[in-house]
Design brief:
The chain is mostly helical. Helix content is 39%, strand content 0%. It is built from three helices and no strands. The protein is globular, with a radius of gyration of 12 Å. It starts with a helix and ends in a 9-residue tail after the last helix.
Length: 71
Amino acid sequence: DSIDIFRLVKISLKNYPNIELNHCMDPRQAEHDIKKVKPKIILLDIQMPHINGDVLYKELIEKSLLNDSLV
């Protein structure tokens, strides 16, 4: 959810036009976004509003949403 981290990653990857970045501010929206985008890499923040990053990670595993994603 950290916009600062997102911006840093975006700047770091600006020379790689084939990489698409998506940002989710609300971890409650993450499940929907993961189903829609099917990301190859997911960067989770530990401290997020409404739910801890560790808890979200476990929930995504339980729902089999991370099968093809590196977290």
